[in-house]
Write the structure tokens for this entry.
Amino acid sequence: MTNYNCLECQKEVPFETVKKRVRCPYCGSKILYKPKITQTVVDAV
Ligand SMILES: [Zn+2]
């Protein structure tokens, strides 16, 4: 299960919440990102 982070308030938003409504439950921001899956495969090509 992947959790998201809110770009605005930096709080962790559970995937279940994002699945229902793509919006931060804390501040209402719609900009969420995955914190950990960034540094994986940047090596190809
Ligand atoms: Zn937020």
About this structure: Residues 4-33 form one domain. The mean pLDDT is 83.
